[in-house]
Design a protein that fits this description.
Layout lengths: L3 E9 L3 H10 L5 E6 L3 E9 H13 L10 E6 L2 E2 L2 H7 L18 E9 L3 H10 L6 E8 L3 H5 L7 E10 L3 H12 L8 E7 L7
Antiparallel strand pairs: 1-3, 1-4, 2-3, 2-7, 5-9, 6-8, 6-9, 7-8
Helix pairs in contact: 4-6
Length: 206
């Protein structure tokens, strides 16, 4: 069964339109875009193994991503995702059926990523702390391909987003995700989607 990963693409801001068009043409419409220092932009999206292989071939052949200065793309396997409808929304146009969690089951910590409407990070962190989380980091982003939310979630989503990164102990993951989905999920104004990525090692956590 195909694994599901978060695909991260980093390139120059001047190439933003080129990359967006490339991904849309290959039916990966949902992208979360953040700006970075040095006139860079960062894309985050969600792909199956099969879709990643298709995209990687195209990135090399059509966009010459291997040429220095063009950019970089890589994938990180997902450990879990909160909500079946949210999963369908993020994997629209991809042949994916949810199976077992990521093979990296022996990790002690996971990176919990929450994507929410702009302005609700305090609500999300209050819910997370109430379930045992520590601090988090907020990154401003812009969402594209939000039209699919009407089909899978029955709601419209705002383009302006916040991505909140929280490192959580694996034993507390489900409680924290449940608290966020309860207090700041799709039934709230925050309209949060959350998922986790495996963390292989940490420093600075007590």
């Amino acid at each position: 069964m195909s694994e599901l990963s978060m695909m991260v693409t980093i390139t120059e801001r001047s190439k933003l339109t080129t990359f967006l068009s490339f991904y849309r043409e290959r039916q990966v419409p949902v992208q979360f875009i953040s700006l970075a220092l040095g006139d860079k932009c960062v894309f985050a999206s969600f792909v199956t193994d099969e879709k990643w292989e298709e995209l990687r071939r195209g990135l090399r052949r059509e966009l010459q991503i291997d040429v220095p200065g063009m950019g970089i793309a890589f994938t990180v396997p997902l450990s879990s995702i909160g909500g079946r409808r949210e999963l369908q929304f993020l994997t629209e146009h991809q042949n994916y059926q949810k199976g077992e969690e990521s093979t990296m089951k022996d990790t002690k910590y996971e990176l919990l990523v929450v994507i929410a409407n702009h302005g609700y990070s305090d609500l999300i962190m209050d819910a997370a702390r109430g379930a045992g989380a520590a601090g988090g980091t907020v990154i401003h982003a812009k969402g594209t391909g939000m039209e699919g939310a009407e089909k899978f979630l029955g709601i419209s989503l705002a383009a302006e987003k916040e991505m909140i990164y929280i490192v959580v102990h694996r034993d507390k993951r489900n409680d924290i995700m449940s608290a966020i989905m309860r207090d700041a999920g799709m039934a709230s104004k925050a309209k949060s989607i959350c998922f986790t990525l495996p963390v292989s090692a940490t420093a600075g956590l007590r």
